[in-house]
């Protein structure tokens, strides 16, 4: 018998509870193991009474740490008080399953260390990519590979907004509003649209993939708030979509890691991922490119991943292969490969800007003003040896001409 | 220390040997376990001497069954003598890893039974989808789901041929020849182009997904030898690609299973899978659609999966969750959902055929003769309530008109 207690009963928690009830008979039949959800911690028992069998609800956290409990599911989200509760559960030698990417990105190494020392498991498959089985695939199935790169769409909210901007010519604010109305974006969308959510997930993926601890604060993070309808016109001209990509890649033996809006070919693997879907493209030296696609969030996709962690813990007598407490990685935030970029220079000194562009880049295609009718702007696709070279040009031109803003977007060809 | 012996050293075997050597240090560092490839069985030692360290080569199969050996890798392919060797290894309480889909599709249930009884593992991740981690994802990561359907491109050879026919207007014979020249098709391509290879893989996937034993001989199998350039013109007209799909799906609580050329929308998930790539689309009741894409064959993708099985066995103290000896499934080979189909009726009695078509189907669009200039043929897209209804029409029209052949291709809209 496996006795499970759960912290929180919001969207994720309710889904997990339903999945546990639904799979009890099958679990018993196939694995001869009884799943018992013994206690669920909620703030207000009356609020949840109708949707749950009330005898398992409690507002007393001590009941979660009861000695009979084998596995604690953390489904509260956020860092406080999740961090303290998870730590306490592990110290009490209870296995913990969580979907909380904020918690793992922030305290994963410490918590896994505590879990190891106490001979219990800390599992967090649902923290990245919702129901897509990416952490287990990286840590177990691709274990014979040296991972060369990860390129991923890890945030459904921003992918939904960018899809609407691209396919239905909506502007950013309207697309965000629609996402909020449909429940794909929260009332306060900052963590999503600023790229923080994707960066936390990328830090978890990269730590496992590259066997070095990647702190999410060391990742270069640009969100999508700066993307406008004109950017999509330029992208269209190049046969591209704009996607918020989470990228980590070994470039000249250094680890590059960034979350940024990037142009990808419309017919490429990532260019085709629409709306709230997530996709993770992993390039391993043996397996080549492997792509995992699915819903990255939502009640049941997330619960599906949480449930697989529970099943793993119950069936497994071995220690986890999830390693998180590697040495810290030095993270490079500058793109080192030769690539094409879109440059948009806001200036009234158009002629001077164009001269400077053609002088600087041997491979430069300036987009004709007539095409997009943008006053006070020069836009060009340039090929640059590296991002550092491009940044030097940007600094340089800022000294030569009056410019309000220079915007750059990477075009990813692979 | 884990002592490994291998049967065979062709493409897959060489890849596995290289991956074992390459990962030894990392394995030791991360998991404190020594990997030793002790013996490799080959027919002719001299033939392999240059590429391998000769001290591990042997042509005496008894050395493989030496008492020091913990894990036997079967990399010979085919059923004979693989079946006998694998059985013997399991009976001697050695773990076995294989990439052999023919062996597993034919004898998987018996061999897994022997493995269970002897307390050892039989693993075969590489048998389906090459390096794509699909079996573990199905049996462990999606364990909380009831699987509703699997739709997959499981054979790279046929997908390469169909891609060339579609994108480069090649005919079947030229595309097959090119595939053979590039090493994507074997000299005798029968198992691939007739759909047997895909059917064997589908039987393995379906057995795990639906928890009923699906015999590959009960699957309806149509290959691609019958697909001609005209089919691609019709597909083009509908905005479709033709793909050899391996499909299993619960339809009205019955399991439908078939391998067949199917039209899928060009911009759909499976319509976009090109050349030698494989893709598996799994629809689970909790997780929704999850898609796994990657190279389904080749030395290192296959070795990557074999290596992950080895790693699993070494690190794991638990019994596998791979179950294969379920009760036998009743397999339905008729498509039960209302769908659109392409019908091509070879006949000189065109008018009569057209009359019969419009009489029979309320939703029928006959393709104008001028469009494709096909003498002696009536082609139409019809909507039929089920495949059985369509088949009754085909029987019916065969009685009414003189026809050499009637061809039908399903159009999959989801």
Automatic annotation (TrEMBL), chains A, B:
Give the record's GO biological process terms. methionine biosynthetic process; threonine biosynthetic process
Question: Which parts of the sequence bind NADPH?
Answer: 101
Task: Show the InterPro entries listed in the entry.
Answer: Asp/hSer_DH_NAD-bd, HDH, HDH_cat, HDH_CS, NAD(P)-bd_dom_sf
Q: Where is the Homoserine dehydrogenase catalytic domain?
A: 133-310
Provide the binding site for L-homoserine. Answer: 186
Which reaction(s) are listed as its catalytic activity? L-homoserine + NADP(+) = L-aspartate 4-semialdehyde + NADPH + H(+)
A single GO molecular-function term is: NADP binding
Record domain Aspartate/homoserine dehydrogenase NAD-binding: where: 8-125
Q: What EC number(s) has UniProt assigned to this enzyme?
A: 1.1.1.3
Its annotated pathway reads: Amino-acid biosynthesis; L-threonine biosynthesis; L-threonine from L-aspartate: step 3/5; Amino-acid biosynthesis; L-methionine biosynthesis via de novo pathway; L-homoserine from L-aspartate: step 3/3
- At the top of the EC hierarchy, this enzyme's class is oxidoreductase
The active site consists of 201 (proton donor)
* Stored Pfam families: Homoserine_dh, NAD_binding_3
Q: Keywords assigned by UniProt?
A: Amino-acid biosynthesis, Methionine biosynthesis, NADP, Oxidoreductase, Sodium, Threonine biosynthesis
Q: Which residues bind NADP(+)?
A: 7-14
Q: Which family does it belong to?
A: Belongs to the homoserine dehydrogenase family.
- Record-given protein name: Homoserine dehydrogenase
Q: Tell me what organism the protein belongs to.
A: Clostridium aciditolerans
């Amino acid at each position: 018998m496996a006795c499970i207690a759960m912290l929180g009963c919001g969207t994720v928690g309710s889904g997990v509870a339903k999945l546990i009830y639904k799979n009890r008979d099958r679990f018993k039949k196939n694995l001869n193991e009884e799943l018992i959800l013994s206690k669920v911690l909620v703030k207000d028992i009356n609020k949840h009474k109708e949707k749950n069998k009330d005898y398992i609800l409690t507002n007393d956290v001590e009941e979660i740490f009861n000695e009979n409990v084998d596995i604690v599911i953390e489904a509260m989200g956020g860092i406080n008080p999740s961090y303290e509760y998870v730590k306490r559960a592990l110290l009490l030698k209870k296995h913990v399953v969580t979907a909380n990417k904020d918690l793992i990105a922030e305290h994963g190494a410490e918590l896994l260390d505590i879990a190891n020392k106490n001979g219990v498991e800390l599992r967090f498959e649902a923290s990245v990519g919702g129901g897509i089985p990416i952490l287990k695939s990286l840590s177990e199935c691709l274990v014979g590979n040296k991972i060369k790169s990860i390129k991923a769409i890890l945030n459904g909210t921003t992918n939904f907004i960018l899809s609407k901007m691209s396919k239905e010519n909506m502007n950013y604010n309207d697309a965000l509003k629609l996402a909020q109305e449909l429940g794909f974006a929260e009332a306060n969308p900052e963590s999503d649209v600023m790229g923080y959510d994707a960066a936390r997930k990328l830090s978890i993926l990269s730590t496992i993939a590259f066997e070095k601890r990647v702190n999410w604060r060391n990742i270069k993070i640009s969100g999508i708030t700066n993307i406008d309808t004109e950017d999509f016109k330029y992208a269209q001209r190049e046969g591209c979509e704009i996607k918020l990509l989470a990228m980590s890649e070994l470039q000249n033996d250094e680890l590059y890691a960034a979350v940024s809006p990037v142009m990808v070919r419309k017919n490429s693997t990532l260019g085709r991922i629409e709306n709230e879907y997530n996709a993770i493209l992993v390039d391993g030296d043996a397996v080549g490119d492997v792509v995992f696609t699915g819903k990255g969030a939502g009640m049941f996709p997330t619960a599906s991943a949480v449930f697989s962690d529970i099943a793993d813990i119950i069936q497994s007598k071995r220690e986890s292969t999830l390693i998180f407490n590697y040495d810290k990685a030095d993270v490079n935030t500058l793109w080192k490969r030769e690539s094409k970029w879109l440059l948009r220079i806001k200036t009234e000194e158009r002629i001077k800007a164009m001269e400077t562009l053609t002088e600087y880049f041997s491979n430069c295609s300036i987009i004709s003003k007539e095409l997009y009718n943008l006053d006070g702007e020069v836009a060009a696709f340039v090929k640059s040896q590296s991002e550092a070279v491009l940044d030097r040009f940007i600094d340089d031109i800022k000294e030569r001409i009056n410019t309000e803003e220079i915007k750059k977007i990477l075009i990813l060809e692979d």
